Amino acid sequence: MQYKRKESFRYTFTEPCKATFRLIKDANGLTEKEISNKGICEIIDISPHGLKIFTEFSIAIDKQIHVEINFTLDESPIDLVGEFVWSHRKINGYEYGINLPEDTYTEQLIINELKNVRRKSMDMRK
């Protein structure tokens, strides 16, 4: 699947952001409890509409397409449900692109948290 994102901005972390994820739905419509336990991942980059994660787990995104991700950028915990749109094999794991549904509250939360992270990183350089 080819995916071309059109974002106003995308923030790439210098140190990946730690997160957990859980597969919650597949193409057969199984309920969320029937899919997976939590796994560990790292967020490579993020925007209000999507993110790129890295994990050691191989996920058949053609069958299990929805994922719940939990992380904290600055202070507020963020829980999102997104849809896998692409995957790439890496030497020591896999990268996945995740599309997030439109949600004004969550989009604003991500933007505000990223502003705080950026502001704090700039203050540390002074």
Task: Provide structural commentary.
With 126 residues, the protein is of the alpha+beta class. 17% of the residues lie in helices and 46% in strands. The chain contains one helix and six strands; from the N terminus they run E-E-E-E-E-E-H. It has a six-stranded antiparallel barrel. It is globular.
List the helices and strands and how they pair.
Elements: E1 11-25, E2 39-47, E3 50-55, E4 66-72, E5 77-90, E6 93-99, H1 104-125
Antiparallel strand pairs: 1-2, 1-4, 2-3, 3-6, 4-5, 5-6
Briefly summarize what is shown.
This protein has 126 residues and is an alpha+beta fold. The longest helix has 22 residues.
Uncertain segments of ≥5 residues (pLDDT<50)?
none
- SSE string: EEEEEEH
Question: Major beta sheet, specifics?
Answer: 6 strands, antiparallel, barrel
- In terms of DSSP E residues, the strand content is over 45%
What is the SS-derived class? alpha+beta
Shape: globular
> Helix count?
1
Straight-line N-to-C gap:
44 Å
* Physical arrangement of strands within the biggest beta sheet: 1-2-3-6-5-4
How many strand segments? 6
Helix content: 10-25%
User: What would you report as the Rg, rounded to the nearest angstrom?
Assistant: 15 Å
Mean pLDDT: 84
